[in-house]
Amino acid sequence: MSVRDTIQQxxxxxxxxxxxxxxxxxxxxGFSASAVQMLEACGVQDVATVDVLANAEIRQGIKxxxxxxxxxxxxVNGEFVGGTDIMREMYQSGELQKIFGA
Length: 102
Fold this sequence. Notes:
alpha+beta, two-stranded antiparallel sheet
């Protein structure tokens, strides 16, 4: 299975996927920590997370998959939402909460 196929399967097979550096319990960068905090504030409990630091192919592949240069990256219902900056803007405007029914 190619890296693109693996990513496609992760994105399509989970309602919410966060590609991040580290894990929710031990984020390895401030942006990943912020993304996790916003999801928690929205009451999202079932998040599939992928630690891109554990797999260099996924780390590069997700950037190509989304045409987005940075990590973290959030996908909801198979759709790319954005990175931390976009998540923050959406959170501040209430849009992120609406996506999750919060």
